[in-house]
């Protein structure tokens, strides 16, 4: 399938892997694809996201906090309330992570886990192909990746973009307009 990807779309997939690695996530999810699209300034996917007011830093912060916050919410813990309480008791920034000292030995050695796509990201890539074909395109570009992320309703990336006000239909309209303007 990647043979149909434009160079820009391939770069987005590589950047998504880098995003997952930098966040120490074991799999590449739709949230990492969304972050990578936001970094692609010249592509239609990134252009549409920026035109909708979606900002990389806000999405990155939500993705970084999302794993911990979601896990704690499932057991009834509000992470924001805990942070506020700790800041009030111990001072602002008390929970900021300090970088561990470099130490030798096998317990402290970090090994890179091979990063692969999670099921939602796989589905969004498949949907990107279907969307491209439905538009009568013989390639998959960043615009198709964006629409695939939004169409995959179980993915964190699409959910986050929807929380920020994006809808599939409105985004598809914006993509079509951008494609006409680029022609």
UniProtKB/TrEMBL annotation:
The keyword Ribonucleoprotein does not apply. The keyword Repeat applies. Transmembrane segments: none annotated. Residues 2-181 form the Clp R domain. Keywords: Repeat. PROSITE patterns: CLP_R. InterPro entries: Clp_N_dom_sf, Clp_R_N, CLPT1/2. This is Clp R domain-containing protein.
